[in-house]
Every structure is written in C-alpha cells, then in structure tokens.
C-alpha cells in the first residue's frame, strides 16, 4: 500500500512557489500582484473569492510573455 501512495505523491516534493508582491503607490494605496499559480486553477474564481473576502477590486491580466 505504501508504494502506491509514494507513486502518486511523486510531484509533492517539487518546490513551486507562489509569489505575492505588494507595490506601494501614492499615499495609502498599494497594488498586489500574484504570480506562480498553477494553470489548473481558475484565476477568475480565485479573484472573485478574494474580492468578496477583502472588499477590494481586482483583475486578471493577460500578458503575451508571461501568460495570465
């Protein structure tokens, strides 16, 4: 039974980081960017939940070089 579990979790040891960056704008305003989310996730659903949770605005940016 342990051999099966180890075969399924082979990718669990790889380090894939999610970068959250906060850029200070003028005054008390700031811009938060998130980079490194997996493509399996729905970015629009994540954004919708974050906007509800933190009562803020947000958008998913399409970049030709970096993707979504």
Automatic annotation (TrEMBL):
<comment type="function">
    <text>Probably involved in translation.</text>
</comment>
<protein>
    <recommendedName>
        <fullName>SUI1 domain-containing protein</fullName>
    </recommendedName>
</protein>
<dbReference type="InterPro" id="IPR005874">
    <property type="entry name" value="SUI1_euk"/>
</dbReference>
<dbReference type="InterPro" id="IPR001950">
    <property type="entry name" value="SUI1"/>
</dbReference>
<dbReference type="InterPro" id="IPR036877">
    <property type="entry name" value="SUI1_dom_sf"/>
</dbReference>
<comment type="similarity">
    <text>Belongs to the SUI1 family.</text>
</comment>
<keyword id="KW-0648">Protein biosynthesis</keyword>
<dbReference type="Pfam" id="PF01253">
    <property type="entry name" value="SUI1"/>
</dbReference>
<feature type="domain" description="SUI1">
    <location>
        <begin position="18"/>
        <end position="68"/>
    </location>
</feature>
<dbReference type="GO" id="GO:0003743">
    <property type="term" value="F:translation initiation factor activity"/>
</dbReference>
């Amino acid at each position: 039974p342990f051999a099966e579990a180890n075969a399924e979790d082979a990718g669990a040891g790889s380090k894939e980081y999610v970068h959250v960056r906060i850029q200070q704008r003028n005054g008390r305003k700031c811009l938060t960017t998130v980079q490194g989310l997996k493509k399996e996730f729905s970015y629009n659903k994540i954004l919708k939940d974050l906007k509800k949770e933190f009562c803020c605005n947000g958008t998913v940016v399409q970049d030709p070089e970096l993707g979504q």
